[in-house]
Predict the structure.
Amino acid sequence: MTNWPELECKYYMQTIVRVPVTLVKGKGARVWDDKGREYLDFVCGLAVNCLGHCHPVVANAVAEQARTLMQTSNWYYTIPQIRLAELLVKNSCLDRVFICNSGLEANEGAVKLARRYGHLKLNGAYEVITTMDSFHGRSLAMTAASGQPKMQEPYIPLPAGFVNVANNNIEAIKSATTDKTCAVMLEPVQGEGGVNVPDDDYLKKVREWCDQKGILLILDEVQTGIGRLGTLFGYELYGVEPDILTLAKGLGGGIPIGALLAKERSAVFAVGDHNSTFGGNPVTSAAAYATLKYIIDNDFPTKVKKVGQYLMEGLRGLKKKYPFITDVRGRGLLVAVEFNSDMGQSVLMACLEKGLLVNRVKPNAIRLIPPLTIGNKEVDKALDILDRALSSVAKEVVK
Ligand SMILES: Cc1ncc(COP(=O)(O)O)c(C=O)c1O
């Protein structure tokens, strides 16, 4: 039998500490490894496969479009791209769309758009305020935007124009705002930074401040968008409307795609200002259209809210049982369990051994981001495995 980890070690750049399992097949919330072992997947491609693995709605859309027209340049009109843009606009508070290929590209586009806005309407203002523990992607500019020193240090000097301030702190944003500021960029709930849920009124206060100063509010909903928090977009949960919104992850149901949306008054790109070879490609756009339409038509946000509450209740039960769990937090199906020491990896490995995939989001925390299609039965199974995993880790800690 081929030793895939050994081959990976030989040929692939060693930038990722992988979980020791080689996945070969997926269906719904389940995946199988190369030895035929089945796992319940509460990682789902890092909040990507929102309809589960290989959902027929997505797979059929891809297959049909792949047999019809795969790629043209954006010099031409293509129908899946236009249909996707229309669906996004009709179901959000934004007016215009640009489609790209990933979350970081959507955020790069958002920052470029905010800078254009600054040039045109704010006397050349160009700085974007972001928060500590945020994550906006891995390009150089998005590394500067992401308030995580360990990500930034290897690449100093970073592109100018970003100010990282304390998270969930309106006063920090106010103090950092100058006549150079063109926008504030935030995740409604920080995902990679540890599933950090802000105070209920934080986004409203940020919105009010942006309005007062005439600067833009960019919401990075790469992780929180497309039903993940129990609303189609995270901004609905907090009762605010962004000027610019970015999406990726769940949008394509497993196919790589990102999108940048803007209100009409902030959609200031002119001809020639921005483009992408693959952005809005017919195949990826068809997949995203099918995914989004299915999510909307079947009201997944409401289902996510209910099953998310059920998951949260179960996790609170585990918190009572295991005193080393210090916090369970999240919204909808973006949830973290935090421990009193750096046992995230041990819990991940114990879950893996018992047939559940979870993500170690911080040394002392795991993240659960299952497909939006799961029901209470799958949650029960995950909670049972997690319970047994925590029990075995607890025994190790006591030893
Ligand atoms: C909030 C947020 N923004 C941006 C990104 C970057 O997206 P991508 O990996 O598609 O570039 C991520 C990825 O985890 C994310 O969670």
Remarks:
- The two ends are 36 Å apart (CA to CA).
